[in-house]
Request: fold
Amino acid sequence: MADPVFLITGASSAIGAATARAAAQAGYRLVLGARSQQRLQQLAEDLGGPDRVLARRCDVTERADQQALVEQALSTFGRIDVAFANAGIGSRPGGFSAADPDVWRDMLMTNVYGAALTLQAAIAALRASHGHLLLTGSAAGRATIPGSMYSATKWAVTAMGYGVREELRGSGIRVTLIEPGTTDTPFFDDPKPAGLRADDIARAVMYAVSQPPHVDVNEVLVRPTPATE
Reply:
């Protein structure tokens, strides 16, 4: 199909912005949501302007924002073919014994509740298009990391991906968990120069969505190559 539509939350930077660029290059029209309207608008202009890109401020923890993003996407482009629940907040120090619980609240609301709201808002449109649903999980959602609430949120995203896939079985909607290892993005407080780059994860996303309709890539786990000795 010519010019399918790709919706991305957390689209203004890092993995979201890199995926937007890759999807635009592949011929997708874009629906971009993020809290930073200024960065979002600049990205939209770089990728083709209003004829190709709808950019809207979206706080993923607000149900009304998510519903409005989907509704405007449908009114502007008429369909959604891919929805990428990508918005997230990274790890913070303190463990379970000393972390700031307000930071936990923001992380849980964004990484778990926000992702769930994206799924709920987009599913009807994806049913209509037999589309593709993706979630940004993490390698941290496959391992036990001492004292990490971030890891706990990504375990929840892993479970969400498995659960929504079973709910949608037979609907024609494909569901993919994208699970990056350490990635050098502003997501973390300290730089990760030995980690993956956002473009590496964007290529994993585009691999999953570029498969023929009978192929459902359930999970893509991407880790950096261990340093050579």
User: Anything to note?
Assistant: Helices lie at 14-25, 37-46, 63-77, 95-98, 101-129, 149-167, 198-209.
